[in-house]
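hey so u asked for the seq, here:
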Amino acid sequence: MIKNYALEAKNKDGSPSGKFWVDEAGARAAAAEVLATNAKMASGKIPGYLNTYFSKAWGHFDVNRTGKIEVIKMPQFMRFLASDQQMYLW
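ran it, C-alpha cells below
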C-alpha cells in the first residue's frame, strides 16, 4: 500500500516526515486491485461496484473532508468497501 498508493507528508523544511496518507485517487486504484485480488471480484464488475459504493466508504473514513486517509486505516477501509469484515488482506 505504501509503495504503490500512499503519499508521504513533508515536514516544514521539505524533508520526509514518515507519515503516509492515501488520497481519493490512490484509494480508488488500490480498491480496484484489492477487489480483484482479495475479494475475487470479476474485473468487469469492479468499475460498477466502485461507482456504487466507493463514495460512501470514502466519506465514512474521510470524516473531516481532508481528501486523504492515513495509510494505516486502509485495511479497515477495504473491508468496509467490500462489505467483508473477515476478508484476508495480504
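The beta strands are 7-10, 16-23, 68-70. Residues 46-61 form the longest helix (16 residues).
lmk if thats what u needed
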